Amino acid sequence: MSTRSSGRGSGGSVWRAPVEPKPPASLDLATVEDHDLDNEATFRRLGFFDLDLSGRSADSVEFEQCRFRGTDLSGTQLDHARFSDCLFESTNLANLRLEKSSMLRVRISTVRMTGLHWINGSIRDVTLSGCRLDLSSFRFTKFQNVVFDGCNLTRADFQNADLTGVRFTDCDLSGAQFSQATLTGTRFASCSLAGIGGVTSMAGAVVARQDLIALSYTLAGALGIHIEDDTDD
């Protein structure tokens, strides 16, 4: 994906592709004994490979130019965490809970993120591809230059999130919640939008033609409009 491309969609906003992470020249291998999750810990240029870091709790942890592969962070609580120039592959982030945390220049691929809670945070220049994000929550989080590609986002919660310019491509958003979210220039292409909540908050969003039929039924229901078939009396 190009990091320099931009374009103006029909919604009038300029979209910029996420800036790619800056990988380190080399990585040292992290170990649980030397690199466990402690308050105010800083980890730089480390490979977290096949480690069990589940069920932890730490505040103000910083990860810079780190790579996660096969590591289990499920059920961990990280507040005020910061991830920059990181890569996540085939990692378990199910039920990971973060508040007031940030991601900058991160790529996340084929990661399990069911039940992830990323509340009141910041996500910028991030690409998520092939991830399982069902039942995840991003309430009050600000997104900038973010792409969701081929992700399962069923019943995800984006209430009060700022999704300005985000792109959802080939994603299942069935039952997702967008109440009071900002979606100016947010683009949906080849997505399942059946039963989404907060559809009246989608002013300024850009929806591909093939996705519009399911969305129109949801919008009609939210507005109390009865759609009559030709066979109805």
From TrEMBL:
<protein>
    <submittedName>
        <fullName>Pentapeptide repeat-containing protein</fullName>
    </submittedName>
</protein>
<dbReference type="Pfam" id="PF13599">
    <property type="entry name" value="Pentapeptide_4"/>
</dbReference>
<dbReference type="Pfam" id="PF00805">
    <property type="entry name" value="Pentapeptide"/>
</dbReference>
<feature type="region of interest" description="Disordered">
    <location>
        <begin position="1"/>
        <end position="25"/>
    </location>
</feature>
<dbReference type="InterPro" id="IPR001646">
    <property type="entry name" value="5peptide_repeat"/>
</dbReference>
<dbReference type="InterPro" id="IPR052949">
    <property type="entry name" value="PA_immunity-related"/>
</dbReference>
